[in-house]
Design a protein that fits this description.
The protein is of the alpha/beta class. It is built from eight helices and 15 strands. It has an eight-stranded parallel β-barrel with strand order 3-4-5-6-7-8-11-14, surrounded by six helices. A two-stranded antiparallel sheet has the order 1-2. A two-stranded antiparallel sheet has the order 9-10. Belongs to the KdsA family.
């Protein structure tokens, strides 16, 4: 398994989970800072490793009238300030190769959205940035095909790659998680994560707005940990019902500590079983 560092975080770390967590979208500085502060508190209390995530701009909204961001530089500067003030790496999405150079100046990880996971120019540009790259598996892709997406990044000489499962779409506003995907993606030699909130989406099910089934978050997240993922991805928000995006699936911030604690305990339990 490819092992590498992202700031103070080593990926993967045997017997430990990496958590990528933060709001779907940087809505304002106060909200982002509130979330970062709580993630740092959880990290100190539970010993969890965090990468803070926040999209500086959303380019793939269901409706053309949906909120897309507060401005690129303003949002990216908030992410850079969180890295400096809270000592945790930061991640954001990029949607076109032309965006990569700007975003890479502010963040530690560039994320390739699932809808764009086959875009060669984007993958190559992200690899050439030298930043770690997290590739979301397209809802339309077989898990073994992620080897080709990773190879496009690795071909630039950048092997700091993570692969993230977020469910497969068969139409009709639904996503399905096939847990065979985790060992298949792990066979690429790169760390594999599970997106525990986007996988709950019911895409574009609500008159141009994605719905979701948040009640299934923990059963699926537990199953992913039991299946051996290296980390988990969560979107969290102080008031999900008021979020500008992904309101149906983001985790309420004041409930996130218990989520992290339970999943870390399960990870340790699985490690003890494997050592028997």
């Amino acid at each position: 398994m490819q092992k590498f560092s992202i700031g103070p975080v080593t990926v993967p770390e045997k017997g430990e989970l990496l958590f990528i967590a933060g709001p779907c979208l940087i809505e304002n500085r106060a909200m982002a800072v509130e979330i970062a502060g709580e993630l740092r508190r959880i990290s100190r209390q539970e010993g969890a490793k965090f990468i803070f995530k926040g999209s500086y701009r959303k380019a793939n909204r269901s409706s053309g009238g949906s909120f897309t961001g507060i401005g690129d530089r303003e949002a990216l500067e908030i992410l850079a300030d969180i890295r400096e003030s809270y000592g945790m790496p930061v991640l954001t999405d990029v949607h076109e190769s032309a965006e990569v150079a700007l975003a890479a100046r502010y963040v530690d990880v560039l994320q390739i959205p699932a809808f764009l996971s086959r875009q060669t120019e984007l993958l190559v540009a992200a690899g050439e940035s030298g930043k770690a790259v997290n590739i979301k598996k397209g809802q339309f892709m077989a898990p073994e095909d992620m080897a080709f997406a990773a190879a496009k990044v690795a071909g630039t000489g950048n092997s700091r790659i993570m692969l993230t499962e977020r469910g497969s779409s068969f139409g009709y506003h639904n996503l399905v998680v096939d847990f065979r995907a985790f060992p298949k993606m792990a066979s690429t030699g790169y760390p594999v994560l599970y997106d525990a909130t986007h996988s709950l989406q019911l895409p574009a099910s609500g008159n141009g707005v994605s719905g979701g089934e948040r009640e299934f978050m923990m059963p699926l997240a537990r199953a992913a940990v039991a299946a051996g993922v290296d980390g988990l991805f969560f979107e969290v928000h102080p008031s999900p019902e008021h979020a500008h995006s992904d309101a149906a699936t983001q985790v309420r911030l004041d409930q996130f500590a218990s989520v992290v604690k339970e999943l870390m305990q399960l990870c340790r339990c699985m490690q003890s079983i494997h050592s028997l």
